[in-house]
Write a structure and sequence with these properties.
- It is built from five helices and seven strands.
- By secondary structure, the chain is α+β, with helices and mostly antiparallel strands.
- It has one domain: HIT-like (HIT family, subunit A), CATH 3.30.428.
- The strands form two sheets. The chain has a five-stranded antiparallel β-sheet with strand order 2-3-4-6-5. Strands 1-7 form a two-stranded antiparallel ribbon.
- A hairpin with a 3-residue loop joins strand 2 and strand 3.
- Helix 3 packs across helix 5.
- The longest helix is centred in the middle third of the chain and has 22 residues.
- It is globular.
- The two termini are 28 Å apart.
């Protein structure tokens, strides 16, 4: 059963699972992500295991890129195409009030993020939430059992394949 865990607990778990010497996104792309929807030499799309809201999908360039000035335009276009596809799938499956799509990251390695450019597609189920409430871990993140996350992944992956 899914439940909230604190920001602090999520950060400890993420840090424990990060490959030494790699940013968080690179660690996920290079084997730490359990729920990869699509991966090629340009883009990796995966289900977040520590989502703000259940069903959150992340899209990142497979190679480490920190600045938009170094981003290949075709890769950026492809990432945004996957963001649209992700939002459409989440809307169909889970009927959120809205899907927020945002490019996020940090100028430095922090416990819950990194400088690797990535896009989050976040289904939001409460119409009253403002963007600042959607993009914060201040109130915790979802965690689920392996069985629950496997079911969620299977449902999304089935739609992804169509």
């Amino acid at each position: 059963m899914s439940h909230f865990i604190t920001r602090e607990k999520a950060i400890l778990e993420i840090e424990k699972n990060r490959n030494e010497g790699e940013c968080l996104i690179c660690s996920l792309i290079n084997g730490k992500a359990n729920f990869i929807l699509e991966k090629n030499d340009r883009i990796t799309v995966f289900l977040s295991e520590y989502p703000r809201f259940k069903g959150q999908i992340m899209i990142a360039p497979t190679l480490h890129v920190e600045q938009f000035s170094r981003m290949n335009e075709e890769v950026w276009k492809e990432m945004n195409g996957f963001a649209l596809k992700s939002a459409r799938i989440l809307e169909k499956l889970f009927l959120p009030a809205r899907c927020y799509i945002a490019s996020t990251g940090s100028p430095e390695n922090l416990p819950m993020t990194c400088p690797h450019i990535h896009i989050n597609v976040i289904p939001v189920y409460d119409r009253t939430l403002k963007p600042a409430q959607v993009f914060t871990w201040a109130h915790g993140v979802y965690a689920g059992s392996g069985e629950e996350w496997n079911g969620l992944f299977s449902e999304i992956k089935n739609e992804w394949s169509h």
